[in-house]
Amino acid sequence: MAFDDLRQWITALDRAGELKKIRTEVDPVLEITEITDRVSKGAAKKYGRPGGPALLFENVKGAKGIPILINQFGSERRMQMALSVDHLDEIAERIRQLLNMKSPEGFLEKLKMLPMLADMGKFFPKVVQTGPCKEVIKKENFSLLDFPVLQCWPKDAGRFITLPCVITRDPKTGKRNMGMYRIQIYDETTAGMHWQRQKIAAEHYRDMLRGVSKQNTGAQAPRAATEKRRGDDIMARSGGGAMLASGERPSGTMEVAVALGTDPALTFSAIVPAPPEVEEFIIAGFLRQKPVELVKCETVDLEVPAGAEIVLEGYVKLDELRTEGPFGDHTGFYSLEDEYPVFHVTCITHRKNPIYATTIVGKPPMEDAWMGKAVERIFLPLMKLTLPEIVDVNLPVEGQFHNLMIVSIRKSYPGHARKVMNGVWALGQAMFTKCIIVVDEDVNVQDIPEVVLKVTNNIDPERDIQFTLGPVDSLDHSARLANFGSKMGIDATRKWPTEGFTRPWPDEILMDDKTKALVDKKWKELGIE
Ligand SMILES: Cc1cc2nc3c(=O)[nH]c(=O)nc-3n(C[C@H](O)[C@H](O)[C@H](O)COP(=O)(O)O)c2cc1C
Ligand SMILES: [Mn+2]
């Protein structure tokens, strides 16, 4: 069953015993973080599993009655519920079926395909006339300060919206993108838009700077060369998205809409590292098996989820950047301040009695750990499209997803592990992977003790470690330069003679089946247990 909006989802969480309502007054400045962090780290023992319950804070200091939902995705069970499955591999299986689709040969085969084609019809979003997010429309006298936005950590630069679905339009194709990029509140109507430079909205922004549009990518003349050069200058000096050139500045704005508090599949689709050509609204439709309903914005030419709790409409100026951060990030460290575009809000619409949905990030494990694990499972079949030799992948939570990937492969030729490393580094956001460990298919990558044993046994470090240079995550504080640094691959596969390894390779120690069966039979009699 898909959830139409955040409220249906909260009701379902409550019914499933996955929600804790808290009536004691709490402060959105630091206090909610401390409570939620303890819950994420296992302080709520009565739930008997990592992650604890989702939390609905009903009495938030200074919130004028707006409750806060946090930790909605914060356990494996809730992540499954959010995507309406019993196991995340079910989604991977659905993707596999879609990818395996071949042309039907006879009438019967065509008939068999009909249900799948009908399913595909559910993926596409539908624009409807109006929706609950329009219950209150404020084109003036609105304020970002009206919402109980958290200050998460002591050294944060201020209050940050941490779970926003940021919607922009590709000026080249007209396609929409929805990405989750945190937003720092500056004042009533302005905020910092933290889309990192390799993300899709930052690319839209650069395209606007370049003067690229649907009109001039075709037969029509491109922008005047001088104007183009000005845009290039800004990009060349860019920090977060782009940096101001002194003196001349290109003019113009880029429209942005932000949905806060949507149904969980939609919120989740804002974090998936989808190819730029695929609209997240379609991904959400696929995950929900039900179209996403959209409504047109009031002041910008964008559509937003009709059932959202809160919608912020506005624009970023192409010639304006401002310091964003520091912010306590999911690396366990503060991400340092940097220059990012400024979001100017032109209109706020919301439901009556809106609920503010948010999250915190920090030292893992936290809520985002479960979201990341879901991405890992769902993207495995898609990784295999490009790298079919991959058997399984583990992005350990402590590696914060971009710092460590353990991948097992079916090794078929000399140098195969290195081909896989290079393939991963070329794969969308997997480019950020600081350390890739490649093992043979007999290693269970989900079993870290086994990985440590086999990897450390199997490598001759000088021979088996591959360094490369390239883009790194904006949050990487150790790289030689912001956004640019080195990455490491460890080839921990068994080395072959054709790779120059001619020494004998020892067998792994394993007991024979006969002796095992014998001891199984005697086990009780031995009286050890
Ligand atoms: C809670 C949370 C917060 C995030 N904050 C940011 C952020 O501030 N900036 C950013 O570039 N990516 C952030 N991300 C990661 C992006 O959402 C992710 O890379 C996504 O795939 C980007 O979408 P895009 O490919 O459409 O750009 C965050 C992810 C999560 C789960
Ligand atoms: Mn995207």
How would you sum up this structure, described in words?
- The protein contains 15 helices and 23 strands.
- The strands form five sheets. Strands 5, 6, 7, 8, 9, 10, 11, 14 and 17 form a nine-stranded antiparallel beta sheet that branches. A five-stranded mixed beta sheet has the order 19-20-21-23-22, with helices on both faces.
- The protein is globular.
- Helix 2 links the parallel strand 1 and strand 2.
- With 529 residues, it is α+β, with helices and mostly antiparallel strands.
- The structure holds flavin mononucleotide (FMN) and manganese (II) ion.
- Manganese (II) ion (MN) binds next to strand 8.
- Flavin mononucleotide is lined by residues 162-163, 177, 179-182, 194-196, 199-201, 271-273, 359, 361, 368, 371, 429.
